[in-house]
């Protein structure tokens, strides 16, 4: 389940990133920045969590943000399908992609913080919510 969420996050970030670049894609750049910031905040919250309540809060906060950004990410991916080819990324996007990759690496470690709390009902509910939000984005 955790691997699925991580994969969805990386796919979502990829779809947003490849939709960025130039003035034609200004909205994508803005959404990408918000997405990367949300991911960073999520990872930081998970890394500093020391209780089930803190983990559940981090997950629910992330889900709140993705409920807003997810439909925008999906819309932009549909609007600019020609940019899904990562080999044709404009130079302006390479730095942004690197930032997402760095956060993605941190996210794998942060997910390990969730594991000790997975039996907690609040964490389970938050996990389901994150999964639902991410599935709706794909």
Share of helix, binned: over 70%
How many structural domains can be distinguished in the coordinates?
Answer: 1
Termini separation: 16 Å
Strand content: under 5%
Oligomer type = single chain
Secondary structure class reads mainly alpha
Cα-atom radius of gyration: 15 Å
Q: How can the largest sheet be summarized?
A: none
Structural description of this entry:
This protein is mainly α and 138 residues long. The chain has helices at residues 2-18, 26-48, 52-79, 91-114, 121-137. The protein has one domain. It has five helices and no strands. Helix 1 runs antiparallel to helix 2, helix 2 (26-48) packs antiparallel against helix 3 (52-79) and helix 3 runs parallel beside helix 5 (121-137). The chain starts with a helix and ends with a helix. 36% of the residues are buried.
Short description:
Helix content is 79%, strand content 0%.
